[in-house]
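Subgroup meeting minutes
Present: P.N., E.W., G.H.
Scribe: E.W.

1. P.N. recapped why we're keeping a running log of single-chain structure predictions: easier to compare across weeks, and new members can see raw inputs and outputs side by side.
2. G.H. added today's entry (352 aa).
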Amino acid sequence: MTILRYILLVYAFGAIFTAGGIFFKSSKISNISLAGFVLLLGIEMFEFLLSTSNIIFEYPELRGIFFFPAGYLYGPFLLIHLLSISGTKISKVYLLHFIPFIIILAIMSELWLMDGIERINFLSENFISWTMNMNYARAAHLFIYGTILLYLIYRQRLFLKPKEKLYELSICLIYFLSTLVISWLTEYASGWRDFIYYYFTTYTLISLIAYLLYSDPKFLSEISQKYLRSGLKNSDMKRILTKIKEAFQNDQTCLDGQINLASFSEQINEKPHHVSQTLSTELDKNFNEYVNGFRIQQAVKILQNPSFNHYKMEAIALESGFNNKVTFNKAFLKETGMTPSDYKLNWNPLLK
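Output recorded in log:
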């Protein structure tokens, strides 16, 4: 176990330096949220190593100040990260995800007012009635967000490029597996030291992916191409792309709200996975992105036409081939960087 502790110490330093690199590379929400997630992992690692060593008796005030609150930040940080890289505009409403964290801070405020030795005694004497209940609550919160993240990726699967989908699935899988491990340990571990296996497993998986991305920047792209590869020659893809473009010269193709990859492939007499691979390889888009591009063009024409000023957004969405306002807003925002309502006001300030 001593060897594991040294490995975890290296992981902890690595996580903190990695978080700094991610943060200073860009000020985008996607980078800030990911940096926050990685930094939490590193700090929690240090706290674990301190709390399970004799050093804690020299600095008892460090015991129990980070582990419980940190558990309520991982899910929100990762959720915001995945939403932001998929094009979702992160508004102030997402701050609501941090309410459980604030509640835990309030619950623990009395604990923090204790001196170090008193806090250690409290955590030990109330292990069943307080400490374990806090562990259960933390594990439940992690599990809930793991489920939310999996659902989010499932819901966005049609909007994500293959490499984006693989990236999100990889991170979510690590989070969910680590959540299951810590939930199991919360119930069956004989002591705090047993959690070393949770940290070692989690950080090893994360470090492995980080190394692969660092050593081979094209790793994700190559993996995605492996799953998309179907033996198509370049000449075949050029031919299929021509058929796709010819089909979409007819506006009714993109305005058909029921069109999908299967029905369109049948329409042009090609296999669905061949059409999907062609769009991904030649245009770096999936089928929904390609269709929505034409629909957004149609929507822009309507929004710029004064004759349609009386139309509500739901009506414009339907006129453009979308089945509902939510999908329309999301696709429009991803394509243009603004909502349909904002675009309409910018195009025609008299409507303000």
